[in-house]
Design goal:
The structure is a single chain. This protein has helices at 2-23, 26-56, 62-87, 115-118. The protein has 125 residues and is an all-alpha fold.
Length: 125
């Protein structure tokens, strides 16, 4: 019976993303995946600390410090990704330029400016 339950969960986890993509869309599916990952990482951190303390009565072992630290970083990354997808505000820029402006602080580039006009931009310090 135990192997049947495990196989059933495995098949369900294979089917669930396709179902969510079809009926909810890509954005909501991505948000849900980041949210679940964020919550799992938040749950693993205190459980690992409590288990290490209960088992060894010591927090200073490498494993007891490294595992919660890694999962804390992952929780922060998943939380930021979940927030970004939820608010629909992309935070990464491929070119390093702001939308509608140049990479130089305080300047605006127009699509119709000439090369002579671009040389007059001032750099903010």
């Amino acid at each position: 019976m135990d192997i049947a339950v495990q196989v059933g969960w495995f098949i369900a986890l294979l089917i669930a993303p396709a179902y969510l993509m079809k009926y909810l869309g890509g954005t909501k599916t991505l948000w849900a995946a980041f949210a679940v990952s964020f919550l799992l990482c938040l749950w693993i951190v205190p459980m690992t600390i409590l288990r290490a303390f209960h088992r060894y009565h010591d927090f200073m072992t490498l494993r007891a410090l490294l595992v919660p630290a890694i999962f804390s970083v992952q929780a922060a990354i998943y939380g930021m990704a979940c927030w970004t997808v939820w608010k629909r505000k992309p935070s990464a820029r491929l070119t390093g330029k702001k939308k509608g402006g140049s990479a130089v602080c305080g300047t605006q580039e127009s699509d119709r400016t000439t090369a002579a006009a671009l040389t007059q931009n001032e750099v903010c310090s």
